[in-house]
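for the writeup, i need someone to sanity check this before i put it in the appendix. the sequnce is what the collaborator sent (i think, or maybe the updated version? ugh). structure was predicted straight from it, no edits. if anything looks off just tell me and ill rerun, i have time this weekend
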Amino acid sequence: MKKLILSAAIVLGSMSIYAYKITTPKLEEVTVSVQTEYTEVSADAVPAAVKTALQTAYPGAKLVKSAVNEKKEYKLEISVGDQKATVFSDVNGNWLKI
């Protein structure tokens, strides 16, 4: 008799867990990104501090394209050998995002 009651409790418990998994709503993660507008500038318009930081961090890197936003943050498209990358720097040469 004890085995019958124990078996019934185990079966009913497992069914309730299974029912919980089926009826539980799934949460979706939403990512919102705000894009700051960058205006393309010539390589001559990039401050010397940014150029120095670029050569220090990436020796032999060539500046392909540069742009700036209203916060004076620079978006630099560079190439090092056969690899290309986009890095972000402030006006003082501090890296924001690599």
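The CA atoms of residues 19 and 25 lie 12 Å apart. The first strand starts at residue 39 and ends at 41.
thx in advance!!
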